[in-house]
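User: Structure with adenosine-5-diphosphoribose, tokens only please.
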Amino acid sequence: MTVDERTLDQVARLVAGGRRNVAFTGAGVSVESGIPDFRSAGGLWERFDPADYATIEAFRRDPAKVWQMYREMGELLDRAEPNAAHRALARLEDLGRLEAIITQNIDNLHQEAGSRRVIEFHGNARRLVCSCGRVESAAEVKRRWAAGEDFPPRCRSCGAVLKPDVVLFGEPVPQEASREAMRLVQHPDVLLAVGTSAVVAPASYLPVVASKTGGTIVEINVERTDLTGTYAAYSLFGPAGEVMPALVERVEGLLERDRSPT
Ligand code: APR
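Assistant:
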């Protein structure tokens, strides 16, 4: 790992001393679980034009086409396991040094890693919803596919095509998630921006609000982003699956030292 050890120690001291630390995660935190991100080379948007597959208009125009992407994504999600970055963030919550994770990811991996407070800013692909209000589990619907039932999946109540419970471009962020996220980024101690290009609004406003209300922004990424040298006070460049465990290990050591009698 090439991350700057001195910066890592400085960030560990801030996190260990913080009581209102928040994580803001994007697709990069799940890349080491085998799920490609969106905008890196080889990312999802290189293979599926978001204009044709990721807008609510595209879904209404041709749901079967959008479902082709979600069926392929679903197979990746089914095979994916939480990686060391997800587990490190769950550990930070256990240590009392992470209040919540605001995630843009829809893969449920933070929850599966044991994180308890996860704000699903862009929804969760484990649920399918219908305009009539019915909610079904994606796993249940997949069993129906396997049994040769209709594709794309239809609502058992009204027959409309079901939609993954994720925020498509042109849709609003769920109100409760938006409200909770905005509360969390007011006057945080540290906001860890992990594996996100921070370019998609309104999620991209969150680190800006955190910074403007006095929070220290730390980005963990494999490359520079819009936050680098602007809102990020610290940048730890390296794979999240390596940087996050190294950071949490240092935080744990600092907390141990503060607890042990001198
Ligand atoms: N460790 C850390 N960062 C990584 C890793 C890794 N192993 N691999 C990739 N990254 C970084 C990339 O450098 C990039 O900055 O993760 C970021 C992923 O950026 P995007 O692909 O833009 O994903 P994200 O920021 O989550 O996109 C936000 O856009 O398309 C919409 O709804 C979609 O939630 C998504 C939103």
